[in-house]
Amino acid sequence: MSNIISLYHTNIKMTYYPSIPSPCYVLEENLLIANLELLKRVQQEAGIDIICALKGFSFYHEFPLVKQFLAGATASSLHEARLAFEEMGVRPHVYSPAYLEADWEELASYAGHITFNSLNQYNQYKDRAHAAGISCGLRINPEYAEVETDMYNPCVAGSRLGIRRSDLGDLPKGIEGLHSHTLCENDSFVLERTLAVIEEKFGDLLPSLKWLNLGGGHLITRADYDVAHLIGLLKGFCQKYPNLQIILEPGSAIGWQTGFLKSTVLDIVESAGITVAILDVSFAAHMPDTLEMPYKPRIRGANSEPETGKPTYRFGGMTCLAGDFYGDYSFEKELQIGDEIILEDMIHYTMVKTTTFNGVNLPSIGKLDKKEQFLLLKSFGYESFKDRL
């Protein structure tokens, strides 16, 4: 039996997708293509490289498509590097706070560029990296970031991420690039201010380098992002430093608003005047970033702020963790057990953070292709749970 299910008999813009299994992450391919087209435009007009950060977008079934638009990939581990090499067919840029000696030989066989977090790490691996033809760089800490949540701020006091200018001194022999990653869902004006700090502190090193990786956190595909300002900023910087290849490595911008997590209401209970709808997914296990960031996910057909006089629900996950909930949301009509809930924008970062805590099953993975047909790509079961233990 084919796992392609036609949805033409339903309105693809409707709230619910009865033919899609629940729970399921669903990528909408046409939305992904729109993001990739915009990113390709930035690459071409600014004269830079944009590469896909697997930590934010690891939907490897779409890597052949991504490769048609972007310049490559960036990985944070041996496994991500292998995934990029095997599924996208590229030698990724690699960065990790520290590398494992046992992983090095295999990692080096995949990598094209490697960024080292410290001079200790560079000195440990530099000879083997150069022998393998890998372009080596150092992660810098410009000690400037406009990130409100400390968990995502690499420039907090005592940060282990990157080398401060006062600790670097002269550029070590064999270093061809610098890597700065201090943004988190920021705009081009934050990048502009960050670049000014990088120039102030590290500008004397830039003329002798081949590349400058400005990391991720560039939310270029967000509707209010000033793309023209970004292109002008990067073009001006490239003209000032014609020796440098400028690299951006967004993750969330690629998968931004390109799909959803379908879930189903399993039960509705009353508790101290609060109506709780329990879903077949878990915020803690399947959407941990909603609790970590934190942010309130959008739900299709619902108002994200409670409205007086309308049916209002707090959504709970199916683990026994007391904090496995999010709310409150108001609807036009009362929910019923069996109703489908569509949690929007769940394809970037969310998918890569899932766990099987409490033995909860992982959501299936599928996509709506260019013709808006649903294709089930992967399902999970007991072995996926057991293999993690």
List the main descriptive attributes of the protein structure presented here.
alpha/beta, 8-stranded parallel beta barrel
Percent of residues in helices comes to: 25-40%
Radius of gyration: 22 Å
Judged by helices, strands and strand pairing, the structural class is alpha/beta
Q: What is the molecular shape?
A: globular
User: What oligomerization state is this entry in?
Assistant: single chain
Quote the distance from N terminus to C terminus.
Answer: 33 Å
Q: What do the pLDDT scores average to? A: 94
Strand content: 15-25%
SSE sequence, one letter per element: EEHEHEHEHEHEHEHEHEHEEHHEEEEEH
Description:
By secondary structure, the protein is an alpha/beta fold. 28% of the residues lie in helices and 22% in strands. It is built from 12 helices and 17 strands. Strands 1, 2, 11, 12, 13, 14, 15, 16 and 17 form a 9-stranded mixed beta sheet that branches. The chain has an 8-stranded parallel beta barrel with strand order 3-4-5-6-7-8-9-10. The protein is globular and about 65 Å long. Mean pLDDT is 94; it is low at 1-14.
Structure in a nutshell:
With 389 residues, the chain is an alpha/beta fold.
Write the layout of secondary structure elements.
Blueprint: E1 4-5, E2 24-28, H1 29-46, E3 49-53, H2 63-69, E4 72-75, H3 78-88, E5 93-95, H4 104-110, E6 113-116, H5 119-131, E7 135-139, H6 165-168, E8 175-179, H7 188-202, E9 211-213, H8 227-240, E10 245-248, H9 252-255, E11 259-271, E12 274-279, H10 283-286, H11 289-292, E13 312-316, E14 325-330, E15 340-344, E16 364-368, E17 374-378, H12 382-387
Parallel strand pairs: 2-16, 3-4, 3-10, 4-5, 5-6, 6-7, 7-8, 8-9, 9-10, 12-13
Antiparallel strand pairs: 1-17, 2-11, 11-12, 11-15, 13-14, 16-17
Helix pairs in contact: 1-8, 3-4, 7-8
